[in-house]
Amino acid sequence: MTIMEKDAQYVAQTYKRFPVEIVSGKGSLVWDSQGKEYIDLGSGIAVTSFGIGDEAWKQAVIDQLGRVQHTSNLYYTSPCADLAEMLCSRTGMKKVFFCNSGAEANECAIKAARKYAQDRYGRERYTIITLKNSFHGRTLTTLAATGQDHYHELFQPLTPGFVHAEANNIAELTALTEKYPTAGILLECVQGEGGVIPLEKDYVQAAEKLCREKDILLLIDEVQTGNGRTGELYAYMHYGVQPDIVSTAKGLAGGLPLGAALLGEKAKDVLGYGDHGSTFGGNPVCCAGALSILSRIDEALLREIREKSAYLFDLFTGAPGIRQVTGLGLMIGLKTEKPAAEVANACREAGVLCLTAKDKLRLLPALNIPMPLLQRAGRIILEVCDPDKS
Ligand SMILES: *Cc1c(COP(=O)(O)O)cnc(C)c1O
Predict the structure, then answer these.
(1) Gap from CA of 54 to ligand 1 centroid (Å)
(2) In 3D, which of 84, 58, 100, 78 has the Cα closest to residue 292?
(3) pTM of the model
(4) SS3 130
(5) Residue range 237-246, pLDDT digits in tens
(6) I want to staple 249 with a disulfide (CB 3.0 to 4.6 A). Which of 102, 141, 260, 321 is the partner?
(7) Which pLDDT score is estimated for 389?
(8) CATH of domain 68-296
(9) Cα-to-centroid distance, 248 and ligand 1 (Å)
(10) What residues does CATH 3.90.1150.10 cover in the chain?
(11) Is 233 exposed, middle or buried (0-12, 13-18, 19+ CB in 10 A)?
(12) CATH code at 3-53+299-389
């Protein structure tokens, strides 16, 4: 059996994969089973923050693997405590709950917001407002949070208590908080799956003000935007707001499954003994990987990310066949004249791995992608998009 036949027969067919078997990689290059080389502009969907097989990351993971790979949360391990300290000291958040994925990080944020509101204001105050076109995960609760109807239809009934607001419409957001006793407002600063669309700064600041006035918790979903991706450690830092809870995952541990909900002053002690948990959450190997990644997302790297971002915006803005460039940092969406899926396929054939999001081509290169590789990939994308060149 070929790998494609085996997958078709034995793996639940929930993913429409590209016809490529990736067998190895180094940094921002990957190779398939035919020996073909690709420049990777997807990073496993913003996960491999420093590319494939980064040496320092690999050593940190192997060292921890050699000590102990798992203990359960009944015991202390230093990578977990050290990572929580590092996350708090770099964000001003106060405590961290560790889990294994983005959806679970959002689950924790939602649970904490509901418990905070119900402890203070009673059982009726449970509504979480999220935005239309958002994406927050695949569990029944995070699907309910996700503001896209097509995700809702198949799995009714979803968790109740979610309403969806139009992005950048503060009047509507305010009206919804008056209509529904609201526990939390959950936002992605840059909607990723929704098409790489940043929120307006005024809107996010007005949402924060509204939250402060009404003692609603401001929850920022940094699962995709976090950990340096947008050119700040977390995207909310571009917006001049201080969230009450930040959820993150994807790039946090550089390719190992780790999610985190960072809890601010109001939320830090809301969840007590037995209120929440996760068998694998805070796994020492994953936390050791995350410590290696996070400790190297410093000001110098963030500046490089912003410079590479500016380079890509310049390169693509106004180019033939490219109608719009959106995004922040190394999270970039291109609205192309040709259908985005067609462009992604042609790029792949030409040796560049790209993603799509809605009707956009989506680029999420490794945070440390070498400039020559970025330039080479950029030229290939320009060529593929140009209607006069194919
Ligand atoms: C990917 C993503 C999630 C879900 O993360 P999983 O690890 O797949 O559960 C949630 N929110 C945002 C913004 C994401 O991009």
Answers:
(1) 23
(2) 58
(3) 0.98
(4) strand
(5) 999 999 999 9
(6) 102
(7) 86
(8) 3.40.640.10
(9) 8
(10) 3-53+299-389
(11) buried
(12) 3.90.1150.10
